[in-house]
């Protein structure tokens, strides 16, 4: 299971549904980081740090934790 802030950023960028959560791969965060960073004008309604946050999450997952691009992450709300 991924950490809370990962969940929030995945929701903010429509990678998963807020209520249902979802399954992501590390490469999904990297792909979305590139999309956001390359198109900042389209993501102004979100946090001004969205590009940095997604880039940081990607780096932490890959370089910090050593996960491969294909590593599957389960994002869920625990109630």
From TrEMBL:
<keyword id="KW-0732">Signal</keyword>
<comment type="pathway">
    <text>Protein modification; protein glycosylation.</text>
</comment>
<dbReference type="GO" id="GO:0005576">
    <property type="term" value="C:extracellular region"/>
</dbReference>
<keyword id="KW-0378">Hydrolase</keyword>
<protein>
    <recommendedName>
        <fullName>nucleoside diphosphate phosphatase</fullName>
        <ecNumber>3.6.1.6</ecNumber>
    </recommendedName>
</protein>
<keyword id="KW-0325">Glycoprotein</keyword>
<keyword id="KW-1015">Disulfide bond</keyword>
<keyword id="KW-0964">Secreted</keyword>
<comment type="subunit">
    <text>Monomer; active form. Homodimer; disulfide-linked. Homodimers are enzymatically inactive.</text>
</comment>
<dbReference type="InterPro" id="IPR000407">
    <property type="entry name" value="GDA1_CD39_NTPase"/>
</dbReference>
<dbReference type="GO" id="GO:0005783">
    <property type="term" value="C:endoplasmic reticulum"/>
</dbReference>
<comment type="similarity">
    <text>Belongs to the GDA1/CD39 NTPase family.</text>
</comment>
<dbReference type="GO" id="GO:0017110">
    <property type="term" value="F:nucleoside diphosphate phosphatase activity"/>
</dbReference>
<keyword id="KW-0106">Calcium</keyword>
<keyword id="KW-0460">Magnesium</keyword>
<keyword id="KW-0256">Endoplasmic reticulum</keyword>
<comment type="function">
    <text>Hydrolyzes nucleoside diphosphates with a preference for GDP, IDP and UDP compared to ADP and CDP. In the lumen of the endoplasmic reticulum, hydrolyzes UDP that acts as an end-product feedback inhibitor of the UDP-Glc:glycoprotein glucosyltransferases. UMP can be transported back by an UDP-sugar antiporter to the cytosol where it is consumed to regenerate UDP-glucose. Therefore, it positively regulates protein reglucosylation by clearing UDP from the ER lumen and by promoting the regeneration of UDP-glucose.</text>
</comment>
